[in-house]
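Ticket #4471: structure output looks truncated?

Reporter: J.K.
Steps to reproduce: submitted the chain below (60 residues) through the standard prediction queue, then opened the result file.
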Amino acid sequence: MSSTIALPIETFSPPNEVKERLHKTALQRLSVLNKALPLFLFIHRLQIFFIFYRFGKEDK
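Returned output as attached by the reporter:
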């Protein structure tokens, strides 16, 4: 007959400090993405505007 030993879940999970640090890092990355997205969209819209502007000048 085999016997198993039940280990507490804390044995395998990282300490709370590590979890908090990981969450903080993830939030910082998300914050950077939130700041970069409007800039990316602005540049993309400028490119589209200049493409249409250039085609409009060629037709005249």
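Triage note (M.O.): checked the attachment and the full token line is present. Residues 34-60 form one domain.
Status: closed, working as intended.
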